[in-house]
Amino acid sequence: MAEQMLQPKPRPGESWSRTCTWRKEYAGEITLDELTHNYHFEERCKKGFYEYKEGLDRGQGTNYWHTRSSEAVCNRRMKWLKTVLQRKAGGPNLPDPPQCPFGDEHR
């Protein structure tokens, strides 16, 4: 544990470490409004809508964050994020995500 705490954190684009669980690399930018179709958020809040409510595990006026902890739903959100990013970038495909050289690509 102490060794992990002393190791410097990898920066984007640097090599993988044996203790990494994820890695970020710049692929472009989209807004939360573009992702959730929740435009004019302040007006919608005044009407009682909300993006997400912890105790209910859902939003009112948007369904993007419903069932936040479901792996299947999170995968669907990631697929949608990639679709929105591809549409905005005008390209047909995003590059394949980098693979962790230390085994399980899902860790």
Describe the structure.
By secondary structure, the protein is mainly α. It has a domain at 31-88. The protein is 33% helix and 7% strand. It has a two-stranded antiparallel ribbon. A hairpin with a 4-residue loop joins strand 1 (50-53) and strand 2. Mean pLDDT is 74; it is low at 1-5.
From the structure above, extract its key features:
disordered N terminus; 107 residues; 2 strands; 33% helix; mainly alpha
Binned, the helix content reads: 25-40%
Number of helices: 4
Query: Uncertain runs with pLDDT below 50, 5 residues or more?
Result: 1-5
Mean pLDDT: 74
Please write the string of helix (H) and strand (E) elements. HHHEEH
| Broad shape | globular
Assembly status: single chain
**Strand portion, in percent?**
5-15%
Beta strand count:
2
Physical arrangement of strands within the biggest beta sheet: 1-2
Q: Gyration radius, to the nearest Å?
A: 18 Å
Major beta sheet summary: 2 strands, antiparallel
Quick summary:
The chain is mainly alpha-helical and 107 residues long. Helices cover 33% and strands 7% of the residues.
